[in-house]
Write a structure and sequence with these properties.
alpha/beta
Length: 480
């Protein structure tokens, strides 16, 4: 039911708009696996479908191409029969399967929308199956002319969605009428989701949970009421037989055909917080900086694993690619190659240097993901801004800025992110570091705007002899 949907205000508004459009609609819902795409569509339409089918996962089926096609067709036929098809035998091919779907829809009432939902569409496109041709024929030859038809397709295999639907140059070119990208939960939505499960944590604990799971509803669903965050993390990831013990391999193998190659890319990107340039990536993998590399990077970006960015005052061609998926960062930092076999690792190492370091850079990523909340806390939501990072080109200096907010009102906010379990107390060394960072930035970039240092932290700023350099403080509560 609609009341079961947590957050997703933008996505539900889009679904409502296409439902009320009065035209034939071909909508693609896409996003990272486990992000809740299927749940959103099912709950929004309250399972009131003229036809609904979920493809069989090819990763649990045979490698035999003919048998794989047969299994997908049999499953599709079972869904057809569930909604009123009268054929006794399965369709021989996809052309026949979609002809039967067309006939089924024609027989149904035309008084209201005919909502057709095909989930995990890319899985139906098995090798040499002719699926794409048949699907094109179904939409172009019939569906596009049916004003009552609302066709929704969904899939986690972002490369397939991109190549075959969003950027198709063949029969489906320009045919999709709406694309809805479903992103991970925000911190606020994560809090709402946990409360719906009866789990009440303070913002600090929710923040740490988010830095591990990244607002992915499927992962959050394994959190148990009555347990601390540390107990839950140990149970889910480090305890033998934990629910997400083998999730990383399952995740990538379900998204990418050549999944081992994609894993090698994200593993490499995880080695540097700031990421690597396209040239550095090409050199590491002994690739040309051409189409093959572009496709991998574009797919990882579209799948919400990687983010491209350009440092302030650097060449627009010097694009960095950094790993931003929280679960993947957590996996490489603590789990990859079985770094520990301790089932109580998180509880016993809560204050260790490795966890403190991880919390620090993960908090920076959380801030980037919630930059709209930071701007709201600064009172500049209505001002045009450009958000980026900056690193000095002078090798003799050690100046780096986590987040720059360059504003049209002639202010540049130099944001310093600090994850602490208490208020931050700025001492003499930190004060000197902040001032030096600001001076090097202003001198090197010749920026003409007024600089303001902003501290983004968990519990705020403690009064001390130092700290006057900080103009504004944003706390984790603001990020919610």
């Amino acid at each position: 039911m609609k009341e079961n949907i947590i957050g997703r205000a933008r996505e539900t508004e889009q679904l409502q708009a296409i439902y009320n459009s009065g035209n034939a609609e071909f909508t693609v819902v896409y996003g990272r696996r486990r992000v809740g795409k299927t749940f959103l569509v099912r709950e929004y339409f309250e399972k009131d479908f003229a036809f609904y089918h979920t493809a069989l996962s090819p990763f649990e089926l045979t490698d035999n191409e003919e048998l794989l096609l047969s299994q997908q067709l049999q499953s599709f036929h079972s869904s057809l029969k569930l909604y009123g098809d009268y054929h006794d035998n399965s369709p021989k091919n996809w052309i026949e399967a979609f002809d039967w779907l067309r006939d089924l829809l024609i027989r149904k009432s035309r008084k209201k929308r005919l909502v057709v939902f095909i989930d995990e569409l890319p899985w139906l496109d098995t090798p040499r199956s002719g699926f794409v041709t048949a699907f094109e024929h179904f939409w172009n030859g019939w569906g596009a002319g049916q004003k009552k038809l609302l066709l929704i397709v969904c899939g986690s295999a972002t490369s397939w969605i991109s190549d075959q639907l969003l950027n198709n140059t063949g029969g489906l070119y320009g045919r999709t009428t709406k694309e809805i990208s479903v992103s991970p939960f925000t911190l606020k939505e994560t809090e709402q989701f946990l409360k719906s499960k009866g789990i009440v944590y303070n913002h600090y604990d929710i923040l740490e949970t988010y830095m591990v799971m990244g607002g992915i509803p499927y992962y959050l669903s394994y959190m148990e009421k009555g347990m601390s965050v540390a107990q839950n993390i140990d149970n889910i990831f480090f305890k033998k037989g934990g629910k997400l013990e083998n999730e990383f391999i399952r995740l990538f193998s379900s998204l990418f055909v050549d999944y081992e190659r994609y894993i090698s890319f994200v593993r490499f990107l995880s080695q540097k917080r700031k990421g690597f340039t396209r040239k550095e990536i090409a050199e590491h993998f002994n690739m040309t900086s051409g189409g093959g590399l572009s496709k991998i990077l574009q797919t990882l970006c579209a799948s919400d694993f990687v983010m491209p960015y350009v440092n302030f005052d650097h060449s627009s061609r010097e694009v960095y690619y950094k790993l931003t998926d929280f679960f993947s960062l957590f996996y490489f930092y603590f789990i990859d190659n079985r770094k520990t076999l301790n089932p109580s690792f998180w509880q016993e190492n809560s204050n260790s240097p490795s966890l403190k370091s991880w919390r620090g850079f993960s908090f920076e990523e959380v801030c980037f993901m919630h930059q709209d909340k930071i701007k709201a806390a600064l009172g500049i939501s209505g001002i045009h801004t450009e958000v980026s990072s900056w690193m000095t080109k002078n090798k003799e200096e050690n100046a780096q800025i986590d987040m720059l907010i360059v504003r049209d009102d002639r202010i540049v906010n130099i944001c310093e992110m600090k994850f602490h379990s208490t208020e931050v107390a700025i001492d003499k060394d930190m004060d000197k570091n902040l001032r030096n960072k600001m001076d090097v930035f202003m001198t090197e970039t010749k920026c003409k705007k007024t600089p303001q240092i902003v501290l983004v932290t968990t519990y705020g700023l403690k009064q001390s002899l130092y700290g006057s350099v900080v103009q504004k403080v944003v706390t984790m509560d603001d990020l919610f």
